[in-house]
Amino acid sequence: MDLEQAKAAQALEGWDQATQPQRRVAWHQRTWEEFVGSLGVKRVDLYDYYLGKTAREYSDAEHAQVIAEIFTDAILVGALTMPQHYSAEDFSFHVKSGANGRKISITRKV
To answer: Which pTM was predicted?
Structure first.
């Protein structure tokens, strides 16, 4: 774990999801902005932050990893709220590059 990820883990300790039961998915932009601001990473490249590197090209697996980690962080800090019986681990992300761009899919694990 590098220094930035250690800071993120420390910041996550102070963030809890709402205690009220959640019945649907909701995005809370302000919560996300406060979280990112608390880490001081507003201008940090996402791939550098989550993968620890920057490159000209990333593999489909690397794209999927970054998306999954953002999704997980968003849930952990309460920026993305979901019904209580779901967690970030219940979903998988897949990216497939093609001639017309990238297709990103999210699948609920069974």
So the answer is: 0.76
